Amino acid sequence: MRKLFHDQSLLTCALTHRSYLNENPDAGIDNERLEFLGDAVVGMITADFLYERFPALREGELTSLRAALVKGETLARFAVEVGIPAQLRLSRGEERTGARERVPILASAFEAVVGALYLDQGLPAAREFVLRLLVPEAERVRAQRLDRDAKSVLQELAQGQWHLTPDYRLVNSYGPEHAKMFVVAVFVGETEWGRGVGSSRHRAEIAAAEDALAKRTKVEHPRRKNERLDYRPA
């Protein structure tokens, strides 16, 4: 990734989490301003690409597809694909809590790298970098209909087949206040269908719904109280 940059200091800044400066106050500046810029650049590149690539889609469909492509989980996977986790500059405390695998940190670092590349070489370079990851992901999302809101799909499935509404329950939370993670389980009837983790309860609920949909072929009839069900979640 370093070969992409003319000004290596921009990349170094993009890879510097604010926690690192708490232990190394003379190490420059953190990546939060670059993240702010990169968020806008990624959003613009994504919107432009979708507008050109899918001329038949209406605004609502484009909005749903864009949301699926720029959500934290997707950007974090992009970060892993380009090797960002190994290059992050983190405090020892964040290292101990597994920050190199944490979705919000990885997604923010990816946006910061895009912002840095935009400053270093302009929009064409940033666009090429983003589209190399975005194009195959967009095709995957469209093919698997992942652009539909997972909670809505799960609700349609549960209500249509069993006349039950999914129930999302917070089962755990962990991490420091500034980077707290939430664990949510989704139940249909008395059966847990899936679990998800996210940087907010809403994101954890979406992740739980996605997990439940991924397992739906294993699910039989969701039990109500005093009913037997052989299915056990993986």
CATH topology of the largest domain: Ribonuclease iii, N-terminal Endonuclease Domain, Chain A
Mean pLDDT: 87
Q: Which CATH architecture of the largest domain?
A: Orthogonal Bundle
Main β sheet profile? 3 strands, antiparallel
Number of helices: 11
User: What letter string, H or E per element, gives the SSE order?
Assistant: HHHHHHHHHHEEEH
Shape: flat
- Measured by DSSP, the beta-strand proportion falls in 5-15%
Q: What is the number of independent domains?
A: 2
State the low-pLDDT regions, or none.
217-221, 223-234
Topology, number of strands: 3
Give the radius of gyration.
Answer: 20 Å
Q: What structural class is derived from the secondary structure elements?
A: mainly alpha
Helix amount: 55-70%
Major sheet: arrangement of strands: 1-2-3
What is the straight-line distance between the termini?
A: 37 Å
Question: CATH superfamily of the largest domain, called what?
Answer: Ribonuclease III domain
CATH class placement of the largest domain: Mainly Alpha
